[in-house]
Amino acid sequence: MKIGITGATGQLGTLVVEQLKKLGYNDNLVALVRSTDKAKSLGIEAREFDYDNPEILEKALNGIDRLVFISANEIGQRARQHKNVIDAAKKLNVKWIVYTSLLRADTSTLNLAGEHLNTEQELKNSGLNFTILRNGWYTENYTASVPSAIQNGGFIGSAGDGKISSAARLDYAEALAIVITNEEHKGKVFELAGDESYSLTDLAAELSKQTGKTIPYNNLPEEAYAGILLQVGLPEGLAKGLASWDVSASKGDLFDDNHQLSKLLGRPTTPLAKSISEVL
């Protein structure tokens, strides 16, 4: 049995490979990546994978039985790219696809939701076996800002008092490995999020506690937050995206209290305090 992992050299994909190795699947794994040279450090078979090239996709998926389909990172291009992958998987008789979607993609106001929803529908129409993991936010999306928050003496955003049920990237990677290696999960849709829910004010308070410094959270209008992100050098699309996603968080789009992720893992998800301490 061959398990292909798209984006295997990315932040999530690398962790998925590690988790599958822990489960004893070393010889069954295939990294599906843009650069096979970059994938050498993974220690598994690697094949070129180009979302925009159907011929290369078909070659890469030849002999793949199960596909860990981590969503592509080109926002605005993903609906088309993901369809290319699904079409190739159907042609090559891939037996099962596990796709990483977005938490409550069918109701979310996040502007990321549309492409994920489109991909979910393509999977449902494909006739292939599939499982959909609707992933919530990675805690790292916020803890990545910890160094600058310490340096500037404040944490900024546009999430208001919105509660965020994030989990560590490793939690989601472990869930992917658990699902793809157990056929009982075929045909299911999981809403995955962290056990703990917090506001950015709570995050700032925990950061203050661990550093012994007063680091408040300053809530800003969406345009002002995006402007600051532009000033510090982020590309315009990403700056505007981050600000809009925070606004969606303020509306509750990143909150979930069903605990499906910890049930899959058989353990609690990684606490915010631990994620902050690891960054520090």
TrEMBL record:
Domain named NAD(P)-binding: residues: 7-154
InterPro entries given in the database record: NAD(P)-bd_dom, NAD(P)-bd_dom_sf, NmrA-type_oxidoreductase
Pfam families: NAD_binding_10
Protein name, entry field: SDR family oxidoreductase
Organism: Aestuariibaculum lutulentum
Lineage of producing organism: Bacteria, Pseudomonadati, Bacteroidota, Flavobacteriia, Flavobacteriales
